[in-house]
């Protein structure tokens, strides 16, 4: 059961992530109209925003320390911020600037931060074996750090999912697998692609515990993640948490979302986890509406400053194009 | 006479956080399907013609039916399956409540339930005087003793065919009626717990330190959950219900969850009589019903918990089948052809 201070911090982290995504969304569409051109404007390339999935990142990362390893997906901003990534260097990377985490050469899907042991990739399920490797390293080094791998429900149908759970279980590694189940793998609904309804069940095949958290509830995520991470840190081995969450936006910015109806999208917006949480915080006299508004104002100021840092930073020199890349 | 039985399967039971906080088992989809398939075999052997079932997204019943194709032959004809009318699959406990209400309206003689204590509670909310044949497929299963699903299906089928004959093995059990600020709110079959804090969180109840007090209707030291805690104090089950207050007093070793033997400080406990009310509230607290944190009491709100003696009816599958075997219901002379769940004498009766 989180304390009031923890509840307020969970709220703050969710709001920071939401405001960041909203602000990136506006910047992303600059210069891309009237004809949508993903190469135009200050942020080139595809953009995958995580609005709606903040409870998963906030609830899990609240139990982590910077030395714990985190891997995330092609939709990584909320997790990166919740794990403590420098927002300015994150923004600069998204804008393709020299001051970004990868000197502007990775973009928003390829964020690597040694300060917070964070990595992500555009390849589905790529972060899962990476997290297993990090957990193996922690074990070999005698550290009590843990690795957490965030992945989508679509990734659970990839071979890497099964290989990762198998090795983590076999070697009894301190890794927690967190499935962000937003029910949509790009445009494919979960029930059209997955043989079983709950990926938590798949933990049984590898002899590790698996738990389901419903309703995109940050307190539920916080409680389950606390148990799983504490268990891993104490040598209890790996576990799997499946969180039913919501993707409020399209798969990518500009996605016409022809695969789901306006009613479905409106229904998701109506049950926005942050708004529901704010109501409960107010009902329980943990955070007033005015205080919640102040949290948003502060988050906007922090995000604006990070975006300004990104905009004002230089692009990498063309002469360095082949430096620090592997291909 | 066409014999029909209801069937409610909770596809989500046994997946909550207690997989991490205790040694609660995982009931995966395959196991759930297998349980239902065995129930269908039992119903078939008992001569049930039709099953009306709650449609749900995982399609456990449909999968069970499919799994029987090409399987080892078994006695009787598999009953026909018909989903109950509904606008869509049941996606939450309210769907179960609605389905149970339909089964009650349709006059089902009994319903087989596959889930935990929470599942049975949802069924009883929709069908207050339900006749259950419960199967344990949840985390805590105080309400459903472990009996093979084949036998539970057989028992439910026999009861549905002749409740007058088998009614001696169906017991009416009490329940707990809960009002909030004087307004009827809900009911629970096993326990109502008062939990510190104003958050339902992961719903499941597992932290001993959060327990403030509880009212428990089933006291059995051999089951897990609060019923097990109460059972340690009232092992003979002599009380219809007891009220537990947690705090310094007597330390009680009790199975709070699967594999979770907790030492709980109990400051007081006392028997509760039918009609007696326990009033709680006044601070930040949450009410948990049958193991699930659900209702957050607002500051100043009061809840009353009242024992009601006449609640649902539970079929004792093991006792019923033992009696049926003693009565020779499972024996027939050679030459009567395949077993269809009906003895020649039964057919004579139905023709008459």
Secondary structure layout plus pairing:
The complex is a heterodimer of chains A (327) and B (352).
Chain A: H1 4-28, H2 54-61, E1 69-72, H3 77-82, H4 87-94, E2 112-113, E3 118-120, H5 127-141, E4 147-152, H6 159-170, E5 175-181, E6 184-185, E7 188-189, E8 210-213, H7 218-233, E9 239-244, H8 262-270, H9 273-283, H10 289-312
Parallel strand pairs in A: 1-3, 1-4, 4-5, 5-9, 8-9
Antiparallel strand pairs in A: 2-3, 6-7
Helix pairs in contact in A: 1-2, 1-9, 1-10, 2-7, 4-10, 5-6
Chain B: E1 4-9, H1 18-21, H2 29-45, E2 50-53, H3 60-67, E3 80-83, H4 93-105, E4 111-115, H5 117-126, E5 131-136, H6 149-161, H7 163-166, E6 170-172, E7 175-180, E8 183-188, E9 191-196, E10 211-216, H8 226-233, E11 241-257, E12 260-272, E13 277-281, E14 285-289, E15 292-297, E16 302-308, E17 313-315, H9 317-326, H10 344-351
Helix pairs in contact in B: 2-3, 2-6, 4-5, 6-9
Walkthrough of the structure:
- The complex is a heterodimer of chains A (327) and B (352).
- Chain A is α/β, with parallel strands linked by helices and 327 residues long.
- Chain A is built from ten helices and nine strands.
- Chain A has helices spanning 4-28, 54-61, 77-82, 87-94, 127-141, 159-170, 218-233, 262-270, 273-283, 289-312, and strands spanning 69-72, 112-113, 118-120, 147-152, 175-181, 184-185, 188-189, 210-213, 239-244.
- Chain A is globular and about 50 Å long.
- Chain B has 352 residues and is an alpha/beta fold.
- Helices cover 27% and strands 31% of the residues of chain B.
- In chain B, strands 3-2-1-4-5-17-6 form a seven-stranded mixed beta sheet, sandwiched between helices.
- In chain B, β2 (50-53), α3 (60-67) and β3 (80-83) form a beta-alpha-beta unit.
- In chain B, α6 (149-161) crosses α9 (317-326).
- The longest helix of chain B is centred in the first third of the chain and has 17 residues, at 29-45.
- Chain B is globular.
- The A-B interface holds A 1-2, 7, 191, 196-198, 200-201, 203-204, 209-214, 217, 219-220, 222-224, 227-228, 231, 239, 241, 280, 283-285 and B 11-12, 15-21, 26, 28-29, 57-58, 196-203, 207, 210, 284, 296, 298-299.
